């Protein structure tokens, strides 16, 4: 399996499909490392280690090449998510921009305040987003949340849930800083490697699941989406959030 993964990586690399090849290189390297650990043949171990070193060198080169390309200050990418489209979970949408150097994240969304919204579950969505950050590959240490305070009956629940998320994140060495602003309107997510992602619907671009035990309830990649637009920007001069 490891050999097949790196073979595919080399093919994609040759075709200049660098993002896809990087994923295959990383998968192949992980599998080959397991082979090295399991084998007792020293000659085979040396061979595998040499190949792993070559693949790791190439993968690192691709990362640098990709980041140089993506770090163009004039970069702008727009993604159109169609009504009922699937395959747009947070990992798929943000992975390309969550490089290893990301340590701080700003989430600005005025509606991270209720568990049950008309179209989704805003606080649950924010929790899922935080889970993605904890999993890496970035090393996030601080998450800044700027949202509005629920002034109605949901205020107590909002405070309780956000405090629970804050405490849970602290168990993973991540600090959640919460700021309430009644005047904010725009929704955007900023990483301190310079990337800004603006989603028309914020984190709540998924349709409400049909039930708690329906496909797509847990896996956002399988959840139908609401129509929205995602704009991605980069500036070399973005300050740490």
Automatic annotation (TrEMBL):
InterPro entries: MIT_dom, MIT_dom_sf, MIT_domain_contain_protein1, MITD1_C, MITD1_C_sf, MITD1_N. CDD domains: MIT_1, MIT_C. It holds the Pfam family MIT. Signal peptide: none annotated. Residues 1-72 form the MIT domain. This is MITD1 protein. It comes from Prunella fulvescens.
């Amino acid at each position: 399996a490891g050999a097949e993964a790196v073979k595919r990586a080399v093919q994609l690399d040759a075709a200049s499909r660098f993002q896809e090849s990087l994923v295959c290189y990383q998968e192949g390297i992980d599998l080959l490392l397991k082979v090295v650990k399991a084998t007792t043949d020293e000659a085979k171990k040396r061979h595998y280690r040499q190949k792993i070193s070559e693949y790791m060198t190439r993968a690192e080169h691709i990362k640098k090449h990709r980041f140089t390309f993506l770090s163009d200050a004039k970069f702008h990418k727009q993604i159109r998510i169609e009504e009922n489209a699937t395959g747009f979970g947070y990992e798929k949408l943000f992975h390309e921009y969550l490089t290893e150097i990301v340590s701080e994240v700003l989430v600005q969304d005025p509606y991270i305040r209720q568990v049950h919204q008309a179209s989704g579950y805003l606080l649950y969505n924010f929790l899922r987003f935080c889970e993605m950050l904890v999993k890496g590959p970035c090393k996030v240490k601080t998450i800044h949340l700027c949202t509005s305070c629920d002034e109605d009956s949901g205020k107590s629940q909002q405070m309780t849930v956000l405090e629970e998320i804050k405490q849970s994140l602290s168990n993973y060495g991540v600090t959640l800083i919460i700021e309430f602003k009644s005047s904010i309107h725009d929704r955007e997510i900023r990483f301190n490697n310079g990337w800004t992602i603006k989603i028309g619907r914020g984190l709540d671009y998924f349709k409400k699941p049909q039930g708690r035990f329906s496909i797509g309830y847990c896996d956002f990649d399988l959840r139908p989406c609401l129509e929205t637009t995602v704009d991605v920007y980069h500036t070399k001069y973005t300050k740490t959030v």
